[in-house]
Amino acid sequence: MEITEFTPSRRTVCALAGAGALTAALGPARAAVAAGPTPLTDPFFSYDRPARYGVVREDIKVPLRDGSHLAAQLYRPADATGKAAVGRFPGIVYEFTAYAANLEYFGDAAAYFVRRGYNALVCQARGSGASPGTVDPFSPQEQRDNHDTIEWLARHPGCTGDIGQMGVSYGGHTSLLVAVNRPPHLKAIIPTNALHDWYENTIYRGGIYSPRIRDWQRSTAPATLQTYAAHPLYDDFWRGRSVMTRWDRLTVPTLEINGWYDRYRDGMVKNFLARPEHVWLVSGPWDHGDPATQYAGIGPGAYLAWWDRWLGGDRHAPLPAARVTSYEIPGPGAGTGWHQFDQWPPRDAHSLTLSLRRDGSLAAAPAASGEAAFEVNTGTAAPNAGQQLLFSTAELRRDVVLAGDATLTVRAAFSASDGNIAAVLHDEAPDGTRTRITAGWLKASHRHGHTEPAPVIPGTCHDLSVHIWPTHYRIAAGHRLALRVSSDDYPEIDSDVPAGRVTVGVGARGSTLRLTVRNP
């Protein structure tokens, strides 16, 4: 078979055939969507009520079952004299985290809830801040400590015994992990930008170590530089740091705050798909971190509505109007803003499969069989022309909305005994500039799972199914959907495989890209 090398400047000339949204995108032109994003009008997100209390802080030690303790700050409603108000109030573990440097920030943010009648606890995980021990992020020990913290707060004489937990990133991870441990007094959680599985989301993406986490490891938990490297396969070490392995135990009401640009969007969506009867999903136009600092439409009022409902016993406090509240990115401008759906992917979404073709195009019709090849990039620089394959659709005459995950099913032969496949989707503008939409990665020896490596026989064709993380993204008319296939995607994954060549089957009986799309 002929081997064709593709370059970044290669453009397609073929139109897309077949049914579905992309076919319509190549039909007669239609008017563009109205300028400006759809606003978030659901009353849940504008909920608020007046503050009634002041705030008093107590520096405490939370006792643990093994005789150790955790340092924490307990913020309680205060009366007019500045003393703790008489009565009992529901409790929120506002952050259970290893980020001791942020304690004052957390305390200031927690005060919003304290002034409205909640106790709020900011807790330093074992080995962080003033808590003795060694940080072992999201470990079974840390989960036991978190369980003990919730039960301690429930027994506090100023608490009703109804406890919630919330947090961003580290605190979001701990919120989900403690929930599947089922402490008796935990009633609901709000995890923001959080995991479903520490191995898959963060450390070994598709079985490939992610270098972007190493600086975090060095600064937060240096011992993990050795322990994580010692567990390249999915074993009990990782099962103990996973929500996924215990999805059946995620039974408390869960308000997931996800970002479509966030590094944990795949995990947040997977949690929802696994437990749709217990999870409400909010996915917005933000990256990793606190959404309130990136987007003015998400504030503490929505969280207060959640706590008033599940901890305060107010059955009139609103819930989100739909199970899924999602911002169609990019925006403002290209994306249409907020939408609400009863499920994810949306009910009107459907799968569309495109073929990777010899001329560098993506189309529903596969065309002739063939091969294309690229060289393995063993460095950290972006791949050059010979180290990647590029495929793209024709220019779209109508908008196309991606609403869900995607899968690259690739037939590949490796000249070495292992290899990596990185699949990156881009929005290509008429001037040729590309905007990254989403991506997925897979080590060839992990093509049958991460628990046991599968042999990679040099020169033999292997079928790999690369999961591409979900998105809710509008590709505008006049743009193209572009797919880059290579061995690297630094800093998302390490370039950790031997030098060599990867040959990819294209055209009929070759590689395909399955998309989830909805009508624009």
Keywords:
alpha/beta, disordered N terminus, 8-stranded mixed sheet, 24 strands, 520 residues, single chain
Q: Outline the low-pLDDT stretches.
A: 1-21, 26-35
Mean pLDDT: 92
For the record, give the distance between the C-alpha atoms at the N and C termini, rounded to a whole number: 39 Å
Helical coverage, percent range: 10-25%
Strand content: 25-35%
Number of helices: 11
| Gyration radius, rounded | 25 Å
Q: Largest sheet, described in full?
A: 10 strands, mixed
Strand neighbour order, sheet with most strands: 2-3-5-4-6-7-10-11-12-13
Overall geometry: globular
Return the structural class.
alpha/beta
According to DSSP, the number of beta strands is: 24
Outline the fold blueprint.
Blueprint: E1 3-4, H1 21-25, H2 43-46, E2 54-63, E3 69-78, E4 89-97, H3 103-114, E5 119-124, H4 140-155, E6 159-168, H5 170-179, E7 186-192, H6 198-203, E8 204-205, E9 208-209, H7 214-220, H8 224-227, H9 236-239, E10 254-259, H10 265-274, E11 279-284, H11 300-310, E12 324-328, E13 337-341, E14 350-356, E15 362-363, E16 370-375, E17 388-392, E18 400-414, E19 420-428, E20 434-443, E21 461-475, E22 480-486, E23 501-506, E24 512-518
Parallel strand pairs: 1-16, 4-5, 4-6, 6-7, 7-10, 10-11, 11-12
Antiparallel strand pairs: 2-3, 3-5, 8-9, 12-13, 14-15, 14-24, 16-23, 17-22, 18-21, 18-23, 18-24, 19-20, 19-22
How would you describe this structure to a colleague?
- The chain is an alpha/beta fold and 520 residues long.
- The protein has eleven helices and 24 strands.
- The chain has helices at 21-25, 43-46, 103-114, 140-155, 170-179, 198-203, 214-220, 224-227, 236-239, 265-274, 300-310, and strands spanning 3-4, 54-63, 69-78, 89-97, 119-124, 159-168, 186-192, 204-205, 208-209, 254-259, 279-284, 324-328, 337-341, 350-356, 362-363, 370-375, 388-392, 400-414, 420-428, 434-443, 461-475, 480-486, 501-506, 512-518.
- The protein has a ten-stranded mixed β-sheet, with helices on both faces. Strands 1, 14, 15, 16, 18, 21, 23 and 24 form an eight-stranded mixed β-sheet that branches. It has a four-stranded antiparallel β-sheet with strand order 17-22-19-20, with no helix packed on it.
- Strand 2 and strand 3 form a beta hairpin.
